[in-house]
Structure prediction request, 138 residues.
Amino acid sequence: MFQGGGDPPYDDLLRKGCSGVVPAEANDLTLRKAIEAIFDGELWFPRRVLSSIARESLLKDRSKELTQRETDVHRLICLGLTNQQIADQLFISRETVRWHVRSLYAKLGVPNQRRSMLETRNLAGLGSRPSSRHSQVA
Prediction:
């Protein structure tokens, strides 16, 4: 039981490996459900706490989201355009395209164009099979 008024420091409890908390005034049925849930691998915390922690975690991952320009470049890469063709189509320099490509590949965690296209197909649920739809993905 947490002594000290207010909510216990839930994020600290989670980081220390705690799987859940049950209020001291919880009835036997709630306690039983909590124990069963924890033994099934679930977390037992108030919903607002889990939502808050999930939201924070998702916001941290946003740094890996593609910018609009990276998305444009990626789409054109998947269509098979060269860096110069992409530069011409987007009215930017070829060096700027290269900059976006490096950033794009870093965010996707891939080393090259081929892997980028395969990753895009996998994310779209197309796998590695040939498809005429792959050029529309991204």
